[in-house]
Task: inverse folding
């Protein structure tokens, strides 16, 4: 080497042991100069290959690239100049060493030192140029010419960002700043990168999965071929042949979805794994550098630059680690995100082609779970999957270095760690069990609250609130009891988690010192091993978690794989091209079943339908009519025969399928709009009148499953969709059964029949309506899945077979139906805003599970157009007896007048008052105690470490340290004290949290029971329930652990600062700028990430609701051949969701890099100041301060996350507070004003100038009523809808408070006494009988006031005794939710029994609008006449025959008294009452 260089290659005196270090010229000229050149040459072939492969277009000559080129040329010139100078020297016979030729040559060719002036000059020029080039190459170039154009309106800046920007996630800064300035919205989000979109990912994954399936199929074919040969050779050997088949079966492997996933996402994920490997190795560099630093401090003669170099290396290493770690996380999270996109897309596509038998094997809920829960599991696993190999690697390396430092005594510490694992997992198992139990209580509490809010009006009328409130609180007490138990466990595990590193260190050091006198614990050993133990902690804790995660994910994988391996519908099952001329549908000898292994439901079907014919299919229930339609659609398994259907198909299923979209979109169903045609369709399908009733006309948003349309409307919309589609073949599966008869007639005449809109098309109509049969061309009669006869109506009558009998059976029913042509049914109206507000409410934060969501949608508050009266929700047939004069349609309300107020979402920062409210709920004393305990805990922890550093500085005498046992004792005492305080503090915190949860829930419940009825009329139940479920859950289970983590990290960071400042006071100077930087990063991040989380959760639920909708309407989507566009909609929804998820990932990375940079600076300055003050410091203190600094990064990072979570979640307190402070009704009991015990004794009623309105700002409903009712009178109240009949009852119970005037009962003003005093002395039989789930006894007597005899007596009088005594559990008979296991009549009788039990002097009977069966009605009337003979009875009548024998009748009109007299006088006076009686046929 020396010959080559002309000087020594390495000289440690020159390079290391000196105050002014330098490298030898030889080293500089060889190693330093050659390495980059060699690198570039090796990279060249790969780069050329890359350029050849990817068509990137031509380079743009921008200013930047011109400068780069210029400086490149200059550099090149400089290095050639160097070479020529060497030749020049040669000529002048000063022979330079060979290296001066080789280096410039190499450098000059690839892209170039220093004893004379010339080389000196070239070197500095060269150096300056290199620096300039470096700076220039950090900027991003413009894209090349002719490269693919990005037409995106809002592309992600990541695509155009340079190398450094990607490394530090600088490109995200613009969004962080925007999010800080104002809350982000959808339009601010960047589009997804091409590689992350559903389109490209699902395409790749499907391709791999199809390949996998094909491979397996090939192998199967091979095995089958083998088998068949085998069979041929051995014709007679039965047993052997069977054996072979069995043996071969085993080889068939199922297609593995895992393989497809690995092929699609593996390569990308492996890049992340590579980063992880580097990061793992780097993480062990800093402890080594720490030991070098400590030995440097000890060695007083070492040159100072060593120290600075060590500090710089520590900093560089930490920064590199940060950058690489976050690159790794980015790759992992993006893989996770792509996995979810891919799995969601594949499942969605599969659900459109899956056979019906396969679909039956799993419910819609389960399939939706595959998409939501199982895909989510993959996503969560991705983050930590690398720990599988990384954890063992880290553990191995850490143990290796520890062994080097402390020898075998390390094993003691490791043993403690390993022992803690089963302890932790035992706690985890137990906690999980508690969670399940607590979920059970929570579900039952929510279910009860749901019922209570549904029947709140009834509870108020009966004054039953206290009893129900007690029931809820009872469940809540149990729930909190379980919570408390799991809190004990959690504080134990926190104790284990925090004390673990300490216990490990303690045992290791104790063993190390005790084993051998000569083992000296010096600073280097102590602090290096401490930092290594800290590295060990993470993998040891993660490993069991990752393994359990993998176990869960493998279950998910199996479930997904099973779903994806289901049979698919055969697309060629129905022939569409070839068919006999003149016919549209032909079926030859076909047999169909619903599944390959089920028995056929249709046998030997032969059928030819000519073009344009109208064919009716009739038959008894379950004879296969719908199956035949499905068979023509290709939905069934064709076992034999052939089917052909020519042209496009439109299909109207029996259960109408309605999308969650506007009514117009439901009808257009993806067709191009055509106004003229559209109006004709609406006219034909009788939808015009419905549009007038709906709040937004045809722009009304229809809830899931068409929740705000009646059955009849849904069916007509479904039919309109078919008519609009203008197809060739119409398959109509009994569209006329859901509508009432006159509408059915209209639709048949206008749409289906010979003169309808569809004449000339081929129509197949399944029907029960016999009236239409004479008008059809052909009739097919099905009996048990076979066609028994075919022909025209006349032919079949002549044959007098099955069809004639069918006619005879049905004709009887038909006659009855004909009389029922009353007015067009009044469809109930449900305001659409309602449904929407609930959607947004549920999507508020995390998506509530789909099931719960459906529940809420069922409970949507239905508010009738009148504002307060209960909507007339009943089937049309029941309305026959009313014969009300048809009312003019209500004037269209202007769409802005919303009944339901939209919910306000909080944006921006959370006010400090909310934190104060929470502290008040916890109780201020406990809050202070918790903070104090945390201070003590950290003091103890610092104490222990300071003691350790003191111990390591103890002088060594004769090779040993003295009083080691005392040292160990104090160290142990301090450490265990810290552990105990942790236990106490986390426990106190948990108790405080539970305390807060209890008080907040109690206040909310208390207030909701005392809220006036008008609040419930304007607030959807879903929104209130959301407070009781979601927000209470957050307060119970999310806020306390978040606070625990926050306080933990906060105090850890604080104690780090204290320790560093204590050991190197200079550090205080740096703290302020670092703190400011940290604070800014934290504010930017919190504002942005919180809003991103909100956007993500809002955009998530539509994916799942659209999916469950698709599954239920798959046959319709396939019939109209709309699969492609539905797949596109689904992809779009997934992409919308990922669009807000991706910046969320990036924001975490952005934050991580910035916060960790602050942490790395702390490390740098701690080390630097230690080096600067090395003469005044001892090794122990340096070890202490730097090892603290090395840990601080993690806690700084978590502190920001926790602040963010805390701010996001504390909003729950605010939302609950808001609902605990809504205005309340009058007090339940007023002590000094309570009426006498026997009041009302006479039952006299008096209204004086009484007026009332429903809510502030609405018109009066009753205007200046004056009337007097004597005790014992029977009064009937009649009037049109909206005349104010029901309002009168509500006034008596003070559900509505007077606007002016007053009501007196027996001379007592009802406005002056407590509500419960009033309500418990009146009896009402309400319009719709509400029952609560619970025993029958509880439904009759929730306060347990009455004896069994009294209850049985009441049941006997209300004609329920026979039913109840026939039940095995008698009075303990369980009523289901809403009393659904009793008939409507029985429920009405239960309400009567309640009234009989109460038996007060005044009875109010609000007659059910729908006549429940007349029989029940007569029973009730009879009982009232006998049992309430001496009471005052007020009846709100809908049918006049019940009140014709009453004392007087009150006729209300528009809120005023129109007539008030005896029935006979009123009929004589020929007024309003007379005309009503005449309509009803009573006058």
Result:
């Amino acid at each position: 080497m020396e010959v080559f260089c002309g000087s020594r290659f390495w000289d440690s005196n020159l390079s290391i042991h000196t105050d002014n270090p330098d490298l030898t010229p030889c080293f500089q000229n060889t190693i330093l100069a050659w390495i980059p050149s060699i690198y570039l040459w090796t990279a060249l072939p790969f780069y050329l290959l890359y350029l050849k492969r990817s068509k990137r277009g031509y380079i743009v000559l921008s200013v930047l690239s011109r400068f780069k080129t210029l400086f490149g040329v200059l550099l090149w010139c400089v290095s050639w100049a160097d070479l020529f100078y060497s030749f020049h020297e040669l000529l002048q016979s000063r022979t330079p060493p060979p290296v001066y030729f080789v280096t410039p040559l190499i450098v000059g060719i690839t892209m170039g030192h220093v004893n004379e002036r010339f080389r000196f000059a070239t070197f500095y020029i060269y150096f300056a140029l290199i620096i300039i080039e470096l700076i220039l190459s950090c900027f991003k170039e413009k894209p090349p010419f002719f490269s693919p154009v990005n037409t995106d309106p809002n592309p992600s800046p990541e695509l155009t960002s340079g190398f450094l920007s990607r490394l530090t996630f600088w490109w995200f800064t613009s969004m962080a700043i925007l999010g800080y300035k104002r809350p982000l919205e959808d339009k601010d989000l960047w589009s997804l990168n091409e590689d992350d979109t559903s389109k490209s990912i699902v395409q790749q994954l499907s391709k791999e999965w199809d390949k996998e399936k094909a491979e397996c199929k090939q192998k199967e074919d091979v095995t089958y071929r083998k088998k068949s040969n085998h069979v041929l050779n051995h014709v007679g050997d039965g047993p052997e042949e069977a054996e072979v088949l069995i043996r071969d079966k085993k080889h068939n492997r199922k297609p593995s979805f895992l393989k497809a996933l690995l092929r699609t996402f593996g390569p990308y994920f492996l890049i992340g794994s590579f980063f992880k490997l580097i990061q793992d190795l780097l993480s062990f560099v800093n402890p080594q550098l720490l030991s070098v630093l400590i030995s440097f401090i000890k060695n007083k003669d070492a040159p100072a630059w060593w120290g600075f170099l060590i500090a710089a290396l520590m900093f560089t290493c930490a920064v590199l680690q940060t950058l690489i770690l976050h690159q790794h996380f980015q790759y992992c999270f993006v893989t996770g995100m792509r996995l979810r996109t891919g799995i969601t897309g594949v499942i969605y596509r599969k659900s459109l082609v899956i056979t019906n038998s396969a679909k039956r094997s799993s419910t819609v809920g389960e399939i939706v779970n595959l998409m939501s829960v199982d895909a989510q599991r993959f996503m969560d696993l991705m983050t930590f999957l690398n720990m599988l190999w990384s954890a063992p690697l880290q553990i191995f390396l850490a143990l290796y270095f520890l062994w080097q430092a402390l020898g075998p005594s390390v094993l003691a510490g490791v043993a403690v760690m390993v022992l803690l694992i089963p302890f932790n997992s035992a706690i985890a198992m137990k906690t999980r069990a508690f969670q399940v139990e607590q979920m059970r209580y929570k579900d039952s509490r929510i279910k009860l609250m749901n019922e209570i809010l549904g029947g709140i009006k009834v509870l108020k009328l009966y004054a039953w609130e206290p009893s129900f409130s007690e029931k809820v609180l009872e469940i809540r007490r149990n729930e909190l009891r379980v919570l408390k138990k799991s809190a004990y466990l959690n504080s134990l595990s926190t104790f284990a988690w925090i004390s673990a590193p300490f216990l490990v260190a303690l045992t290791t050091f104790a063993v190390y010192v005790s084993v051998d006198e000569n083992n000296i614990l010096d600073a280097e050993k102590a602090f290096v091993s401490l930092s290594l133990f800290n590295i060990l902690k993470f993998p040891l804790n993660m490993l069991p978690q990752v393994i359990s995660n993998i176990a869960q994910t493998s279950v998910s994988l199996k479930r997904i794989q099973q779903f994806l391996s289901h049979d698919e519908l055969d697309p060629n099952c129905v022939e569409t091209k070839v068919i006999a001329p003149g016919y549209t549908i032909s079926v030859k000898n076909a047999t169909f079943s619903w599944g390959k292994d089920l028995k056929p439901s249709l046998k030997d079907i032969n059928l030819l339908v000519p073009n344009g014919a109208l064919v009716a299919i009739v038959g008894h229930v379950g004879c296969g009519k719908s199956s035949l339609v499905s068979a023509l659609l290709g939905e069934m398994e064709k076992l034999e025969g052939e089917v052909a259907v020519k042209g496009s198909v439109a299909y109207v299923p029996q259960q109408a399928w309605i999308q969650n979209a506007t009514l117009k979109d439901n009808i257009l169903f993806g067709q191009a709009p055509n106004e003229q045609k559209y109006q004709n369709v609406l006219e034909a399908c009788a939808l015009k009148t419905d549009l007038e009733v709906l709040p937004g006309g045809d722009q009304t948003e229809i809830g899931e499953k068409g929740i705000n349309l009646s059955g009849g409307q849904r069916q007509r919309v479904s039919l309109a969709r078919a008519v609009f589609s203008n197809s060739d073949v119409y398959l109509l599966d009994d569209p006329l059964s859901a509508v009432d008869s006159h509408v059915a007639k209209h639709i048949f005449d206008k749409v289906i029949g010979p003169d309808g809109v569809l004449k000339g098309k081929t129509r197949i109509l399944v029907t029960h309506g016999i009236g239409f049969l004479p008008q059809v061309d052909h009739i097919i009669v099905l009996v048990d899945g076979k066609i028994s006869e075919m022909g025209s109506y006349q032919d079949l009558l002549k044959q007098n077979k099955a069809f004639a009998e069918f006619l005879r059976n049905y004709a009887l029913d038909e006659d009855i139906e004909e009389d029922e042509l009353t007015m067009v049914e009044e469809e109930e109206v449900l305001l659409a805003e309602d449904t929407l507000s609930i959607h947004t409410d549920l999507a508020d934060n995390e998506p509530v599970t789909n099931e719960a969501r459906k529940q809420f949608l069922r409970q949507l508050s239905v508010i009738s157009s009148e504002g307060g009266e209960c909507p007339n929700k009943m089937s049309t047939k029941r309305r026959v007896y009313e014969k009300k004069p048809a009312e003019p349609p209500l004037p269209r309300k202007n769409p802005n007048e919303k009944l339901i107020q939209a919910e306000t979402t909080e944006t921006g920062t959370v006010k400090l008052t909310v934190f104060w409210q929470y502290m008040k709920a916890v109780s201020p004393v406990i809050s202070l105690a918790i903070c104090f305990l945390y201070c003590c805990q950290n003091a103890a922890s610092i104490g222990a470490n300071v003691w350790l550093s003191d111990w390591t500085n103890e002088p060594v005498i004769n090779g040993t340290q003295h009083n080691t046992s005392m040292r160990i004792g104090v160290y142990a005492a301090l450490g265990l004290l810290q552990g105990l305080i942790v236990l106490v503090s986390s426990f106190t915190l948990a108790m405080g949290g539970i305390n807060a949860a209890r008080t907040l829930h109690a206040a909310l419940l208390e207030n909701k029971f005392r809220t006036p009825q008008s609040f419930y009329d304007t607030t959807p139940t879903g929104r209130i329930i959301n407070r009781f479920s979601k927000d209470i859950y957050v307060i119970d289970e999310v806020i306390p652990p978040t606070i625990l983590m926050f306080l933990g990290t906060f105090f850890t960071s604080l104690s780090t600062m204290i320790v560093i400042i204590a050991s190197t006071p200079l550090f205080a100077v740096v703290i302020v700028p670092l703190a400011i930087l940290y604070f800014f990063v934290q504010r930017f991040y919190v504002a942005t990430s919180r809003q991103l989380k909100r956007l993500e959760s809002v955009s998530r639920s539509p994916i799942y609701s659209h999916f469950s909708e698709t599954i239920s309407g798959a046959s319709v989507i396939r019939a109209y051949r709309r699969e492609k566009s539905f797949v596109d909609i689904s992809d779009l929804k997934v992409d919308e969701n990922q669009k807000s998820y991706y910046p969320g990932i990036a924001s975490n990375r952005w934050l991580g890099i910035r916060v960790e940079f602050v942490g790395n600076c702390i490390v740098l300055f701690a080390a630097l100041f230690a080096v600067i003050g090395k003469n005044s410091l001892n090794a122990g203190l340096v070890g202490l301060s730097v090892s603290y600094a090395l840990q601080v990064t993690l806690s700084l990072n978590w502190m920001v996350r926790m602040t963010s979570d805390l701010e996001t979640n504390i909003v729950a307190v605010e939302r609950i507070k808001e609902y605990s402070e809504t205005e309340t009704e009058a007090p339940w009991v007023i002590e000094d004003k309570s009426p006498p015990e026997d009041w009302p004794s006479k039952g006299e009623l008096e209204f004086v100038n009484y007026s009332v309105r429903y809510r502030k700002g609405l018109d009066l409903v009753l205007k200046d009523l004056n009337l007097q009712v004597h005790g014992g009178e029977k009064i009937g109240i009649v009037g049109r809808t909206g005349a104010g009949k029901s309002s009168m009852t509500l006034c008596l119970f003070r559900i509505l408070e007077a606007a002016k005037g007053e009501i007196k009962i027996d001379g007592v003003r009802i406005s002056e006494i407590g509500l419960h005093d009033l309500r418990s002395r009146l009896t009402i039989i309400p319009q719709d009988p509400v029952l609560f789930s619970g025993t029958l006894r509880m439904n009759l007597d929730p306060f347990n006031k009455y004896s069994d005899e009294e209850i049985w007596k009441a049941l006997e009088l209300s004609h329920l005794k026979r039913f109840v005594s026939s039940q095995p559990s008698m009075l303990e008979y369980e009523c289901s939710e809403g009393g659904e296991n009793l008939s409507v009549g029985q429920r009405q009788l239960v309400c009567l029994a309640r009234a009989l039990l109460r038996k007060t002097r005044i009875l109010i009977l609000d007659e059910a609008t729908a006549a429940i069966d007349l029989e029940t009605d007569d029973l009730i009337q009879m009982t009232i006449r006998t049992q309430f003979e001496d009471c005052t009875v007020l009846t709100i009548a809908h049918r006049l025959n019940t009140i014709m024998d009453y004392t007087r009748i009150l006729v209300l009109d528009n809120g005023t008294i129109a007539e008030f007299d005896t029935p006979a006088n009123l009929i004589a006076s020929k007024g309003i009452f007379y005309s009503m009686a005449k309509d009803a046929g009573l006058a």
Notes: Residues 110-115, 235-247, 812-899 have pLDDT under 50 and may be disordered. The two ends are 129 Å apart (CA to CA). The first strand starts at residue 574 and ends at 575. The longest helix spans residues 465-515.
